[in-house]
Amino acid sequence: MTDISLLKGITISITSIVMVFLVLLGLLLILTSFKYIFKEKTEKPIKIENAPVQMQKDPLEEDEETKTVAALTALILANEDQQDKHYQVTSIKRVK
After folding, report:
1. How far is CA 96 from CA 15, 58, 89, 92, in A?
2. Which site in 45, 78, 79, 95 is 20 to 30 Å from 32, CA atoms measured?
3. What is the spatial distance between Cα 60 and Cα 96, in angstroms, rounded to a whole number?
4. What pLDDT, on a 0 to 100 scale, did the predictor assign at position 76?
């Protein structure tokens, strides 16, 4: 190997760092130009008339996912101050 002096090593390091930042700056410019190059054409807004909404008796559906989320939320709130307690869900009832 050839001997490289300290000054030569520093100039190679600074040159390499500058080149990396220039490449990153070029990539940044290319990516930001995509926003203008591939811009979607906006169409005229369509007017939508409001139709009368019929209220259903029960607007929220009761399915297993909703019950599971409700149970987990209740357990999180119950376990907030006391981290070492263990709880078991026995039933899930909706309160109106």
Report:
1. 70, 11, 20, 13
2. 45
3. 11
4. 82
Which pair of structure tokens corresponds to residue 82? 């006391």
Higher pLDDT, 45 or 77: 77
Helices H / strands E in the chain, number of each: 2, 0
Residue with tokens 């939508």: 48
Question: Which 3 state secondary structure label does DSSP give 57?
Answer: coil
Largest interatomic CA distance in the chain: 86
pLDDT at 61: 64
Cβ partners under 8 Å of residue 94, min gap 6: 62
Distance between CA atoms of 87 and 84, rounded to whole angstroms?
Answer: 10
- C-alpha 75/C-alpha 69 separation (Å) is 10
Q: Which residue has the tokens 């760092």?
A: 17
- The C-alpha atoms of residue 77 and residue 79 are separated, in whole angstroms, by 6
